[in-house]
Description:
Elements: E1 2-5, E2 11-15, E3 18-22, H1 37-41, E4 46-48, H2 54-57, H3 60-67, E5 71-74, H4 75-85, E6 89-92, E7 97-100, E8 103-109, E9 115-116, E10 123-124, E11 129-135, E12 138-142, H5 151-159, E13 163-167, H6 176-186, E14 191-195, H7 208-212, E15 218-219, E16 227-229
Parallel strand pairs: 3-4, 4-5, 5-6, 12-13, 13-14, 14-15
Antiparallel strand pairs: 1-2, 1-16, 2-3, 7-8, 8-11, 9-10, 11-12
Amino acid sequence: xxxxxxxxxxxxxxxxxxxxxxxxxxxxxxxxxxxxxxxxxxxxxxxxxxxxxxxxxxxxxxxxxxxxxxxxxxxxxxxxxxxxxxxxxxxxxxxxxxxxxxxxxxxxxxxxxxxxxxxxxxxxxxxxxxxxxxxxxxxxxxxxxxxxxxxxxxxxxxxxxxxxxxxxxxxxxxxxxxxxxxxxxxxxxxxxxxxxxxxxxxxxxxxxxxxxxxxxxxxxxxxxxxxxxx
Length: 230
């Protein structure tokens, strides 16, 4: 399995027979080099969206049309895209599990907000979410944009993920100390990968505090387009 950071909260996850593009915000992402676009997209099978904000779903329609790929995520947002734009989509809801080319993908709760931009201001885009992604002997908890929440307790107990991909840049999501607290209290991760950081000066610029708060856990600071193989 390869986990490849696309900058901000975007990931390319190569697992089982699937290549999942999660929140692939490429256009305008200051962390992502445009010269790597073809490599980032090669062989993709599905586009997963945690919520509707532009720094997560901004390229969703373009990529879906360009590559004839389904958008996968919360029913309200995906159905809206399907009805308005005629793209392929798989809408489901929290607690639902999909088999995506052998990868088992479950939609779970997050604590944030979700909207798309319009001339009249933000428009509701269904509920924010995270993903549990299982395959190749691993289970990933991908938090999406979130704060600490009590639901993490049952997620850790029921799904027992060994890999955590955690939003932890602060201001819009958990910061590093809060993410470390959540990981330590609710999960038994072997590996933690931070995201939603470093993109802008407003966000945390490194994961030193996260690593210090998780002794015994392999906290890997990702580098854009460099595979983490697990």
